[in-house]
Amino acid sequence: MAVSEQSVLDGSSGAVASSDDVVGRIVAIMARLRDPERGCEWDRVQTFATIAPYTIEEAYEVADAIARGDMADLKDELGDLLLQVVFHSRIAEEAALFDLRDVVNAISDKMERRHPHIFGDAEVGGHYLWEQVKAAERFEKAGQNGALAGVALGLPALARAEKLQKRAARVGFDWPDATGPRAKIDEELAEVEAASAAEREEEVGDLLFSVVNWARHLGVDPEAALRAANAKFEHRFAVMEAEDAQFAERSLAEKEIAWVRAKIGPLP
Fold first, then answer.
1. DSSP H helical segments within the chain, as ranges?
2. Which letter, b or e, does each residue of 221-238 get, where b requires 16 or more Cβ atoms within 10 Å of its Cβ?
3. Is there a contact between 112 and 125 (Cβ–Cβ < 8 Å)?
4. What is the rounded CA–CA span in Å between residue 227 and residue 229?
5. How far apart are CA 131 and CA 134, in angstroms?
6. What is the DSSP letter of 219?
7. What are the residues whose beta carbons fall under 8 Å from the beta carbon of 88, sequence distance 6 or more?
8. What pLDDT, on the 0 to 100 scale, is given for residue 4?
9. CA dihedral 33, 35, 39, 42 (to 10 degrees)
10. How many C-beta neighbours within 10 Å does residue 49 have?
């Protein structure tokens, strides 16, 4: 993006007025951090691969701020996520692949293309049209036109399982109601219990996939449900530790009593 790096370095960046220059400020900061001679020793050695885990982490921190309703934190977390986009774009620019302007133009083109009822000649829009356009894009991009094509491998496993199941359901490969996936859980659980040590991981995977399917039929987001369960466990465990400085040394029976007390909550 066309912005003067010097404006950042000499402190004049506070005078920027246009939205393009506001984004340009962080682009220039990243360029300085990546400078081979004057940059930060950590930032300048990073690659797409080393930064990718941070990108995923920042996306989850955005979701966490939203779930907590903390708008001040959301502002900060969105900035952290934007930094990841700028970081990846800078690495790509150094390799003469693309830059941030290319990234912005690409998503702008995509949004217009996927909303032909808004930006084009289509008379009717909606989710079905969106999926039709996406399917055409997948085929044009990689010759993929199967129902499961294009489901990102980088998604968390629970979220990816749900997305695969939804894709299969669109072509009629699905249980008619929640009874089928619920029965499948019992079947898979029995197979886990009967499995050898070598087979156990595969069978547990099948069991988890079945639980995701049941959750989907119940209208529950399995990824969100597990995040909430994690948060509940953390809270209750912290209560037990806060109430007993010697918690780690207690017997299992004593810890179970403390756990029940933490579940019930403080007495009135």
1. 5-9, 19-33, 48-68, 71-94, 100-113, 116-119, 127-142, 157-170, 179-194, 200-217, 222-243, 252-264
2. ebbeebbeeeeeeeebee
3. no
4. 5
5. 5
6. T
7. 48, 51, 55
8. 45
9. 70
10. 7
Q: Report how far residue 21's alpha carbon sits from residue 12's, in angstroms, rounded to the nearest whole number.
A: 12
Kindly report the CA angle at 106 between 102 and 111, in degrees rounded to 5? 150
Taking the C-alpha atoms of residue 176 and residue 181, their distance in angstroms, rounded to an integer, is 10
Q: How many Å apart are CA 151 and CA 10, to the nearest integer?
A: 46
First to last CA, the chain: 60
Whether 71 has a pLDDT exceeding 50, the answer reads: yes
pLDDT digits (tens, 9 = 90+) for 122-173: 766 666 666 666 666 655 665 566 788 878 887 889 999 999 999 999 899 9
pTM of the entire predicted model? 0.61
